[in-house]
Amino acid sequence: MHLIIFGAPGVGKGTQAKMISKNFLIPQVSTGDMLREAVKNETELGKLAQSYMKKGHLVPDDLILKIIKERCLKSDCYSGYILDGFPRTIPQAEGLAQLMIDMQLPPFTLVEVIVPDNIIIERLTGRKTCESCGADYNKLNNPAPADNICTVCGGNITTRQDDNEKTIKNRLNVYREQTTPVKHFYQERGKFISINGNQSVDQVYQSIVNKINQLDESEQTH
Ligand code: AP5
User: Fold this and answer.
1) What number does the ligand 1 atom closest to the CA of 197 have?
2) Active site residue 160
3) Measured between alpha carbons, how far is 171 from 132 in angstroms, rounded to an integer?
4) How confident is the model at residue 221 (pLDDT cuts 50, 70, 90)?
5) What is the Cα–Cα distance from 215 to 83, expressed in whole angstroms?
6) Is position 13 annotated as part of the catalytic site?
7) Does the active-site annotation cover 88?
8) pTM for this structure?
9) Residue 17 in contact with ligand 1 by CB distance below 6 A
10) I want to staple 130 with a disulfide (CB 3.0 to 4.6 A). Which of 135, 199, 201, 211 is the partner?
């Protein structure tokens, strides 16, 4: 299975990608997670990426394409993977299309998740994350403990640098201007499904699985 989980910041891409990864036994390839890891480890990539991420801007395409190529060549990606947060621009979509040709991959299915902006802002301003294990807390449905010590690993729970209202609004603008054209790229060339993300986490997951199955069935009958 080769999937792209697509949508604005905060629609639940990471949450759903983790569930699909666990249930279908394929890795989640998240450019955001890889970049945050590089920032944490103060690598050259991390130092370059940090200034863009802090403001909610996109990291340059050439850096992103390089990390994606390296990651997708690893052996755990052999029978498929879920791209989370990539591609985000037309040059990235074109880079992925070339990678598919070079690696003789089947077409990706793009799963668009849609959530209204006011709900996105509520989710992202309420989010906290463990610095060590990445566990997700949200004051909406799973608040962080008062001492901000992670209940999973004992690490520090903090707010992501880009999860303040000003930067969230900027991320939403960047999404509309630079990332939505990628949706049309896949509507014209690839497999595309659209999901209402403004439901419970489990309902969103079930909608994704149902629509993927429907797509597979309709392909088998044609
Ligand atoms: P990235 O890490 O990809 O962030 P994002 O797209 O802004 O998305 P988020 O991680 O904030 O949200 P999500 O949609 O994954 O939702 P989540 O499941 O976490 O990118 C960060 C930055 O890195 C970018 O701004 C850019 O600078 C750079 N970058 C990354 N990729 C790049 C690329 N390809 N090119 C260039 N630059 C790149 O959920 C959010 C919250 O909502 C959580 O607390 C969760 O618990 C909650 N939630 C989820 N689903 C539900 C639900 N159904 N109901 C209620 N709450 C829910």
Assistant:
1) 53
2) yes
3) 24
4) confident
5) 19
6) yes
7) yes
8) 0.96
9) no
10) 135
